[in-house]
Amino acid sequence: MPSLEVCLTPELIHLYPADGKIVVVTDILRATSCMVTALSEGIESITPVSTTTECRELQKLGYLAAAERNGEQVEGFDLGNSPLSYLENNFTGRKLAMTTTNGTLAINKSKNASELLIGAFLNLSVLSDYLKACHHDLLIVCAGWKGMVSYEDTLFAGALATKLGNSFEIGCDSAMLSIEQYANTNDDLLSAIKKSSHYKRLHNLKISKDIEFCIDVDRYALIPRLDHNQLVSL
Amino acid sequence: MPSLEVCLTPELIHLYPADGKIVVVTDILRATSCMVTALSEGIESITPVSTTTECRELQKLGYLAAAERNGEQVEGFDLGNSPLSYLENNFTGRKLAMTTTNGTLAINKSKNASELLIGAFLNLSVLSDYLKACHHDLLIVCAGWKGMVSYEDTLFAGALATKLGNSFEIGCDSAMLSIEQYANTNDDLLSAIKKSSHYKRLHNLKISKDIEFCIDVDRYALIPRLDHNQLVSL
What is the CA radius of gyration of chain B? Predict the structure, then answer.
């Protein structure tokens, strides 16, 4: 039976060799929720980069450029980190460059995976179905917040691990923790996510709408996959 | 209101400055359970050291010496990491030197705390009562297993955080996770701890007895505290 592990923050990634595993990166608020939304709403590809400098270079080459630091859009870029931006505008066919505080770092630290996928509540079921069919060792990497464990990412890991159920062997105690956290929600994700420090940090109206959007389970049926440093629809 | 944080493994300790905080170190299976037991059963002091070499030096000076690596007693030492050893023998008045795979490392990484205490299920209530009375910022450091998050240490963190209840403000998402994990046990610690990878690793009869002993909540009313590199009864 394939194993399922959860790395609670990129600070612990050295303890979880990704080689030969499928890695699902998640950053619920809001990088990976944005990625699923962007590709589902017509963006052609997403190039995740670590720095705003790299992001600006790609912007000069004609990419749409999204940059977020500490929850806010960085000046001079086209977009920040709100998934709603991709519904409010028509970006069909555009290539996107993206850098975020935590999410793009988690992706860059996981690049030696055999396959790197992007997970969010927005694509939970399609992702779960795909992973069950793959029958392959799985590592869920939570992006966290500046190295700290983040409640909403662990909650997603727990939701995904719960859906995968008996098809995987639980490979570490962190996976067990995330399953128990998710079990405590009784399917009320909004009440659960309000317990997170991230929710308390970002409390203006715009962000509240983002949060409600980010927990809209199975809104999309698309899985972003890394292919030659670009995320494209699987 | 003072804050309560939980550092899930010593690998994340750099994210939780301990300066000016009370730190509770926990390594349920079995270092801190041993420490509470040893002092309660008559040991005068415990000197936690990082290496077996340091432990042997103290042994030569007349200390009783306990050394564990990968769950087993290291050859040439008086004791391993079983709390039952302190009941089966009379060590009253002896000084003990101790090195373990994870627990002593967690202590050494937390030495800049304003006060360093040792926690286990064995002394849960007395510790909780003391911390409530202190009204001071608190960091619980879980020893984990070789850098990985460990189910049973997080479970203890959740039990302690639950007991501290409304006297502390939850300072990080890891603390919230541990509270939810503990809530899921419905006070059946043995069933809970059987989910841990540690339980699965150590499955011989002797260890089973150790585990049952380590979850004997409130068996003792003593708190080990670090004082000039020695743990003594508070």
Answer: 16
